[in-house]
């Protein structure tokens, strides 16, 4: 039997389909948890594809990629997240995004311009977060029924039609929580996203670190826990650090694409994806993630700027015995005692 408990954050703005969902601020609204919950017999799929073109494309402009999830029983939720370069913060774009041939935005998502001043983090509507520098994070809920559960590829297509908008895409990420009876676990998850720009020498209201509070544990006796993060800007040989409950994860230089990777790949910009085991660092009441280029946290030479944009926290535990099983065990114990007496 499938059991799903979803906890959705309060949504400040209810957005209607086929409208402009853009949100803009200077220098961005940071990162916030948009989806969290606890599910039985579940796992996480997170895959990121680089899609940057070194030369500005001619509009209309199309990008296509695919994501192959494992064969599973069911999909609880899906989320498609991409980072787009507009060329200027003031420009407007019209974009269509499809998954397996079905549009996620009714054929046209319109976003852009510095007039969009209200941040919106939505679990149920398309959201666009502006960094203040012409970079936009587009986040879209994907109806679970659109994603294949038979192990076949899920095709994602992005089409842009605005001549004045640059439209090049740094990364495309598919996040899903799926269920399969063979997993035999309890699974807690939290997904955060947004314009996470941080700066080595910030000018107010810029900041040099960002913290996401994922809250406490909903599961007893965890057996596994992980933190996954996606960066879309960082330089090699310049330091940045990631912390979980104030403990550093990995090296001093996690985001490196725009350094040595551009030489080997031929692509100037692309995503850095990191994953860490955090089972030994879990807190019962709170679990905080901090991205930092602050001099208080990070040794020189520090990143001039860094852009973390996605963080996913997951915990697994052994399933709790069902009420019927406990009752059965209790009756069995009682009958055994009576026979012995």
Topology, pairings included?
Blueprint: E1 4-7, E2 22-23, E3 30-40, E4 42-50, E5 61-68, E6 74-85, E7 92-99, E8 102-103, E9 109-112, E10 127-130, E11 135-142, E12 153-160, E13 168-179, E14 186-195, E15 198-199, E16 209-213, E17 222-231, E18 241-244, E19 247-249, H1 260-265, E20 272-277, E21 288-292, E22 305-306, E23 308-317, H2 323-340
Parallel strand pairs: 2-10
Antiparallel strand pairs: 1-3, 3-14, 4-13, 5-12, 6-11, 6-13, 7-8, 7-9, 7-12, 10-11, 14-23, 15-22, 16-21, 17-20, 17-23, 18-19, 18-21
Walk me through this protein's architecture:
This protein starts with a strand and ends with a helix. The N terminus is likely disordered. Strand 7 and strand 8 form a beta hairpin. With 341 residues, the protein is mainly beta. The chain has one domain: Jelly Rolls, CATH 2.60.120.260. The strands form five sheets. It has a six-stranded antiparallel beta sheet with strand order 1-3-14-23-17-20, with no helix packed on it. A six-stranded mixed beta sheet has the order 2-10-11-6-13-4, with no helix packed on it. Strands 5, 7, 8, 9 and 12 form a five-stranded antiparallel beta sheet that branches. The relative contact order is 0.20.
What labels would you give this structure?
disordered N terminus, Jelly Rolls, 6-stranded antiparallel β-sheet, 6-stranded mixed β-sheet, 341 residues, mainly beta, 23 strands, 2 helices
Low-confidence runs (pLDDT<50, min 5 residues)?
1-28
What sequence of helices (H) and strands (E) makes up the elements?
EEEEEEEEEEEEEEEEEEEHEEEEH
Q: What is the CATH topology?
A: Jelly Rolls
CATH architectural name: Sandwich
User: Briefly, what CATH class?
Assistant: Mainly Beta
N- and C-termini, Cα separation:
39 Å
- Beta-strand fraction estimate: 35-45%
Q: CATH superfamily membership, which one?
A: Galactose-binding domain-like
Computed over alpha carbons, the radius of gyration is 22 Å
Strand order of the largest sheet: 1-3-14-23-17-20
- Could you state the oligomeric state of the chains shown? single chain
Largest sheet: 6 strands, antiparallel
Principal-axis shape: globular
Structural class: mainly beta
Number of domains: 1
